[in-house]
Amino acid sequence: MSLTLEDRLAITELISLHGHFVDDGRLDRLEELFTSDVVYDVTDFGQEPMLGVAAVREAGWALGAANPVAHHVTNIVLTASADGRVQARSKGLGVRADGSCGSVSYDDTVVRTADGWRISHRKISPRRTPLGGLAQT
Predict the structure, then answer these.
(1) What beta strand segments (E) does 1-137 contain?
(2) Of the candidates 10, 18, 42, 71, which lies 20 to 30 Å from 125 by C-alpha distance?
(3) Is the pLDDT of residue 137 over 80?
């Protein structure tokens, strides 16, 4: 499968909208980003994967003031699969209210639905070690 320029722009905007919706407290709009049965994998943070948009929304509200005040996404790379899915890899920066910052990698599976492109699987991995933890040998 080959992605058109329009597909690339739509998927990039989809991934970018996540930070706007979360930072604005618009968790009621998560259906515009995710499939209803999304798997939101946060196992690298010691938590169970969340299943479904409602679980993602509830987790955001439960985190409350501990949520970052700003989510930024960058370095979006898209790879089309023969089955019509798109693998999207991007970097995320989260800024907390105290000014501290954290970095993650997002690994998303994006699918075309009747309502447009949606994320069906997202794995979030914290970036805690320079050079991916690799050392020169």
Answers:
(1) 34-41, 50-51, 70-80, 86-95, 101-113, 116-126
(2) 10
(3) no
pLDDT digits (tens, 9 = 90+) for 82-92: 999 999 999 99
Topology adopted by domain 5-128? Nuclear Transport Factor 2; Chain: A, (3.10.450)
Cα distances (Å, whole numbers) of residue 106 to 49, 103, 115, 126:
14, 10, 22, 9
Residue 66 contacts residue 73 (beta carbons within 8 Å): no
CA distance 34 to 30: 6
Alpha helices in the chain (DSSP H): 5-23, 53-63
| pLDDT tens digits, 93-128 | 999 999 999 999 999 999 999 999 999 999 999 998
Q: Is 87 exposed, middle or buried (0-12, 13-18, 19+ CB in 10 A)?
A: middle
- Judged against a pLDDT cut of 90, whether residue 21 lies above it is answered with yes
Give residue 43's identity as a one-letter amino acid code: T
